[in-house]
């Protein structure tokens, strides 16, 4: 009988040890391959998100209120500039002939005749058409490319001076525009991106 009790106690102890049923405190440390790890650290938890204090949960930049920045002072928010070198159609005086559309013929010195015959270059007209403007005296403006209202040179056509805090995106720089941030599980301090 004694032998039976000893064997049953041994079997019970062995089975408890194998299935890990010994009662353990969750805060105790456990050694694994010589490395001590806390059982609490081994528990994985879902991340916890809280409302972003920087934007109040709306996801907008607190400095520019989501606009991306103040209005560009150069173009007054239009994103374009008016070219001062051309007319409203983007045409300007030809810079080659100074808007004349022609040159005095250098072959006949503007006489139209050489030795009593019509000049072979100007055909007796005393001048030759400017090749650049084809005799019109006007070309596409070289400054604005014939657009007359090119993109603003300061803001690049956005109409805004980029906000220093959000670089013109209008989104909260702390939460990236989501309106919430992740709360660290171990310290209770936010993980600011």
Based on CA atoms alone, the radius of gyration comes out at 42 Å
- Which range best describes the helical content: under 10%, 10-25%, 25-40%, 40-55%, 55-70% or over 70%? under 10%
Largest sheet, described in full? 2 strands, antiparallel
Largest sheet, order of strands side by side? 1-2
What does this structure look like?
The chain has 193 residues and is mostly beta strands. The chain is 9% helix and 17% strand. It is built from one helix and ten strands. It has one helix at residues 2-19; strands at residues 29-32, 35-38, 48-51, 91-93, 102-104, 113-114, 117-118, 127-129, 138-140, 180-183. Strand 1 (29-32) and strand 2 form a beta hairpin. The longest helix has 18 residues, at 2-19. The chain is elongated.
Key words describing this protein structure:
193 residues; mainly beta; two-stranded antiparallel sheet; 1 helix; elongated
